[in-house]
Design goal:
The chain is mainly β and 848 residues long. The protein contains 9 helices and 50 strands. The strands form 13 sheets. Strands 26, 27, 28, 29, 47, 48, 49 and 50 form an 8-stranded mixed beta sheet that branches.
């Protein structure tokens, strides 16, 4: 039995007779219908969750945000390996301007990365968002985190004293019903969006005092009320030293249901009190649905034979986290709802132990990590660890967010949760009471029951992404570019898939276009793809694995290949919708003496960097840099990159030549030209099969042409001929089995060549790929290096995003302390493959 001073008033004022009953799923058509619809809804609209662990919450322009994304299944919290792209945006919360975006590659549900902040970034409050492509369909479920950027040369701005309080009154379950006792929760917030410590009282229309109340925790509290028909109620609220301010309570309904939940007094069962004003009848039923994250736990039919009754359900039936109870009336209309939290303590126990109680500056710190499950057995998992200087990396809250608080609590509630870590700290004796208070006040539904029951699901605009996506449209000039999305399955081009089928192409729409796509990364890795658009010219490439900035060359032709008069455009990336309720005041609180130390150290470091730069400038001797001039990119060569051989056409070698073969004859090793004029034949490296010699594939400005067309081109119109042979021809498939001869025509006036010319029907673009991996650098002071003479005042001393803990449940990490005499914060976050989260928060001292 829970012993608490709050329990004696938990159901105070409920002078009604109740009957305790337990119901099981019954053979009821509505319940069966609802259960089926709920299953179908979750199959059609499965959810994902993302948690982002960053090394800290405060930065300066020019610094780096180190991060790791965790992707999990929205219902089961198991590691999500379906989506393999994680987008991370940095948004200015005042202007809503997006400053940066990252494409992080997620392997097995883990996505480490970093964000290098530009020096030009203004100080202020920012929102860091993380989401998958699929999560863009549900913008309310995008992960967000508030970060603060300081300028070293600015004095910290002190928080203005808030002078206004806003308060909401929320009847438990939904409504105030005349004659039925119930509880009214409330939440008061100040201008910063944080909970306000308030007190007040409720008056009826006659100005009689009904009840007094005060906040129990972070501006939240509740009071009991039995409303009367025809009455209106007003709450008068104030903070200490301020005047009262009036707030109306919700209107009293004359008829309906009241639902109250007791999740505290019984260790095994969750108890639900139902009271109503409906006519009593054994033939009339209400329905009660228990579910968690969209997974149905129990459904009950409730005969309305009494004015009030209890329903109870074993707590063990629910998974760890937020559960939801919904009451449907006798007409199958949703009339009341309440959230509650189930705490099975199914969380990893993460222990990080340092080898010493304190350390000296620049001394090596060794950490042993031990992970066990809720039964104390060694547990496997993947973790990230951040070590920061508490003076240089202040935190916004005393009990900040953790991976457990986000996955189990915050991701299933509406709005910002203040001090979320408080509810998971075993040292807080009354945390369960306050957590249930939070459930009463800040509960929400991630879907509406009418939507579930109707089966009329929203149209989804975005697909699950197993890689990066590139989409666009190819249309004839003068035809408007349609911005409507393609239909699923139409215009999809799979990497390496050679289409179209000739029989299908014969029946195709005249607006269909044949595409060839070449993607070239910085390391010269090249991907070659072919396919067709849909009937409107839309196309999309899925599952791309490009790294860093990638050059993409797209060539469009008619299905027969005889027309390339097309405009090719790419679709702009559509980020998740920005969801702001209001811009909060900068929540970071830094003591003035610590801020002064922070500014001093930062300025010293910046001055040192500037002095080193000047010294280097003086020490450098005059040098002569020799390098080859970079040739401009020729878009016609994007298909194959560098040729195996190239013959430049000029007046000397084209004199007397009738065809291009006459010019390249005997000038390229391995190329054999037989005959002359238009009847000449050519073989590259003796290519042949059982049917005889195989002639090469001819290209003209990147477009395939037949041999006859190639040999009718005047040699005076040709700039050069490239020859591609051997493995380089693999991208052309069977068509390139005999090699490739690429003809490049002259462009521009007076026979000059414009290598930047983009032929009709082509597009060359640079697109962002996956962010390349980068290791966190930290000095090692166990070896002597010249750069160690510099002062070391790092805010982040160590960041290790991929710590694998095996069967033993153990791992180890080491790093070196900086020059600062300070306290180090060691935060470890992670999860097991089965979704059980865990974290650790430890501190070590650095002193002389």
């Amino acid at each position: 039995m829970l012993k608490s001073p709050h329990r004696v008033i938990w159901f105070a004022g409920l002078a009604i007779a109740v009957t305790l009953v337990a119901f099981k799923v019954t053979d009821d058509s509505f319940i069966e219908h609802l259960a089926g619809k709920l299953v179908a809804y979750n199959q059609q609209l499965p959810r994902e969750k993302v948690y982002l662990h960053t090394d800290r919450e405060t930065y300066m322009p020019g610094e780096t945000i180190w991060m790791k994304g965790y992707l999990v299944n929205g219902a089961l919290h198991t590691t999500d390996s379906t989506s393999r792209v994680l987008y991370v945006d940095l948004i200015d919360m005042n202007t809503r301007k997006q400053w940066m975006r990252l494409n992080l590659k997620a392997d097995y549900g883990y996505a480490p990365g970093y964000m290098a902040l530009p020096d030009s970034l203004p100080a202020g409050t920012y929102q860091l968002r993380a989401y998958t492509g699929w999560m863009r369909n549900f913008p309310n479920e995008v992960y967000t985190k508030t970060l603060t950027l300081f300028q070293a040369n600015e004095e910290i701005k002190q928080a203005a004293q808030p002078n206004a309080v806003d308060i909401q009154f929320l009847p438990e379950g939904g409504n105030l019903i005349a004659g039925l006792a119930g509880r009214v929760g409330f939440k008061a917030v100040d201008e910063t969006g944080k909970g306000a410590d308030i007190a007040g009282f409720v008056l009826d229309a006659k100005k009689d005092t009904i009840v007094g109340f005060e906040a129990m925790h972070l501006g939240m509290g509740y009071f009991s009320l039995t409303p009367e028909a025809g009455q209106s109620y007003t709450a008068y609220v104030k903070r200490k030293g301020e005047a009262y301010k009036a707030f109306p309570l919700p209107a009293v309904q004359t008829d309906g249901y009241v639902m109250m939940v007791d999740n505290l007094s019984n260790k095994d069962n969750i108890r639900v009190l139902i009271a109503h004003t409906k006519p009593l009848s054994a033939q009339t039923n209400a329905s009660l649905i228990f579910q968690s994250r969209g997974l149905l736990v129990q459904a009950s039919k409730l005969p309305l034979t009494k004015r009030s009754f209890w329903v109870q359900i074993p707590r063990e039936k629910f998974p760890e986290g937020v559960g939801q109870i919904t009451l449907f009336d006798e007409t199958n209309k949703q009339v009341a709802e309440r959230l509650f939290f189930v705490d099975h303590k199914e969380r990893l126990n993460v222990t990080v132990k340092a080898d010493k109680a304190s350390y000296k500056p620049r001394e090596e710190v060794k950490l042993d990590i031990t992970v066990t499950d809720n039964e104390g057995k060694p547990a496997k998992g993947n973790f990230s660890l951040a070590v920061t200087d508490t003076k240089l990396a202040p935190e916004a809250e005393a009990a900040p967010q953790t991976i457990a608080s986000y996955l189990l609590l915050e991701s299933d509630l509406k709005g910002e949760i203040e001090q979320p870590g408080y509810y998971f700290d075993e040292k807080n004796d009354t945390r369960n009471i306050k957590l249930d208070l939070l459930m009463m006040i800040q509960g929400w539904r991630r879907f509406t029951w009418p939507e579930v029951l109707s089966g009329d699901y929203p149209t989804l605009a975005y697909d699950v992404e197993t890689g990066l996506t590139l989409s666009g449209q190819a249309v004839k000039p003068g035809r408007p570019v349609a911005r409507t999305r393609r239909k699923p399955g139409e215009g999809e081009i799979a990497p390496g898939l050679l289409i179209p089928d000739k029989a299908a192409s014969a029946k195709a729409s005249p607006n269909k276009v044949k595409l060839t796509v070449v993607a070239t990364s910085k390391d010269s890795t090249r991907s070659f793809m072919m396919g067709e658009t849909d009937d409107e010219g839309h196309f999309a490439l899925f599952g791309l694995a490009m790294t860093d900035t990638t050059n993409v060359f797209i060539q469009a032709t008619s299905l027969k290949g005889n027309n390339r008069n097309y405009n090719v455009t790419l679709d702009a990336f559509e980020p998740a919708k920005v969801m702001f309720t209001k811009v909060p005041f900068n929540p970071i609180v830094v003591r003035r003496e610590e801020w002064g130390d922070f500014v001093r150290r930062t300025n010293e470091y910046l001055e040192l960097e500037e002095q080193l730069r000047k010294n280097n400038e003086r020490m450098l001797k005059e040098v002569t840099v020799k390098a080859k001039k970079l040739e401009p990119t020729d878009t016609r060569r994007m298909m194959y990159g560098a040729a195996d051989a190239s013959v430049k056409f000029d007046q000397m070698n084209t004199a007397g030549a009738m065809t291009i073969l006459d010019v390249i004859r005997s000038r390229v090793a391995g190329v054999m030209v037989t005959g002359s004029g238009t009847s000449a034949t050519v073989q590259i490296r003796g290519a042949a099969n059982f049917q005889g010699a195989i002639e090469p594939l001819f290209l003209m400005d990147g477009m395939p042409v037949d041999k006859e067309t190639a040999l009718t081109i005047s040699v005076q119109d040709v700039e050069a001929v490239d020859v591609i042979k051997g493995a380089s021809t693999a991208m052309y498939g069977s068509r390139g089995a005999g090699g490739v001869i690429a003809i490049l025509l002259k462009r521009g006036g007076s026979g000059t060549v414009n290598t930047n010319y983009t032929p009709m029907g082509t597009l060359l673009a640079k697109i962002p790929g996956f962010q390349p991996r980068r290791e966190f650098y930290a000095p090692r002071y166990d070896v002597s290096k010249p750069e160690h003479v510099r002062p070391d005042h790092r805010a982040t001393l160590h960041w290790q995003p991929m710590i694998t803990v095996g069967e033993s449940g153990k791992s180890s990490v080491s790093f070196f302390a900086s020059d600062a005499l300070t306290r180090l914060r060691i935060v470890t976050e992670g999860a097991a493959v089965n979704g059980m989260p865990g974290s650790s928060r430890e501190f070590v001292e650095v002193k002389r």
